[in-house]
Design goal:
By secondary structure, the protein is an alpha/beta fold. The protein has helices at about 35-45, 60-65, 75-80, 90-100, 115-145, 160-165, 175-205, 210-215, 220-230, 240-245, 270-285, 300-305, 310-330, 335-340; strands spanning about 5-10, 15-20, 25-35, 50-55, 70-75, 250-255, 265. The protein has a 5-stranded mixed sheet with strand order 3-2-1-4-5, sandwiched between helices. The protein has a two-stranded antiparallel ribbon with strand order 6-7. The protein is globular, with a radius of gyration of 26 Å.
Amino acid sequence: MTKDTMIGVDLAKAVFQLHTASMTGEPKFRRKLSRRSFPKFMAEQPPAMVVMEVCGSAHYWAREMTKLGHEVKLIAPRYVKPFVKRQKNDAADAEAIVVAAQRPEMRFVDPKSAEQQSRAILFRARERLVHQRTELVNALRACLYEYGHLVPQGIHQITRIAEILNAPNNDLPDLMREECRDLLEQIAEQTLRINARTAKIKVLAAEADTARRLQTIPGVGPLTALAVEAFAPPMESFSCGRDFAAWLGLVPRQFSSGGKERLGRTSKAGQADIRRLLIIAAMSRLNWMGCKSIPDDSWLARMVARKPRMLVAIALANKTARTIWAMMTKNEDYRDPAQAVAA
């Protein structure tokens, strides 16, 4: 059925603002609805194109609207903001959503499935626990520093901290040692929770065919594979691997004008979780042990010889992103370029 109506929805916790227009832009009506009456009202409407900003609960409502027969498009808030007229309010936001969505060059966000959101929540839960454990470790190091004990950074220093606290001839007060031991217990609890979620991620990465395929890439483990599956849109939405790398923010920012190309630092204007993991994986291949496995005549060896380490890591992460796109679009496992040339 041809949809001749576009409904812009400004989502909120309690009150939803709707702006309805024809596909050519003529306004039809505006409506303010409560959260309870919104699904009932949309169920009564003929199939239309529903456009919403990407925000909290947007993917949930996208799935609900799809069940009602509507076509749903999600748009990034930064692309809607230029179309807001003068004063900002819910009605102006809903109208701006429709105006922005009717632009032929506009880019949209693919709605996520419930399974994707569940895996994203698991991934973020583990990240949150890691941050909380790091905070506890730094608090413990700060307590020891107040008494002249300098402990380097890193979770692996916990054993050294425990030895300092349990040393029979140290000069630490009993009250201070009690508080530090309580911090050690909290760190141990957080470590158990982190390990439990890490094991769950490994199981999920082993069960999914896409995640298993991604783990054949050097430097890509279960965490990176699950992050790509949870946060990345379908690879068919990118025309080439370079577009996927640009979506991740692994390309330099442009300040070009007058036909002269000016490139700056890495844009970082993309999915931060996948980008961070790819850069960490690239840095692990560039350490003193990983460099031993780099062939002398490869492009990576030539880059390491003449470029800074972080710049090479970003270039390698960019290449890994393009490899991920090629593997997922072609449904193939990773093939070592050196072996392919030798064959």
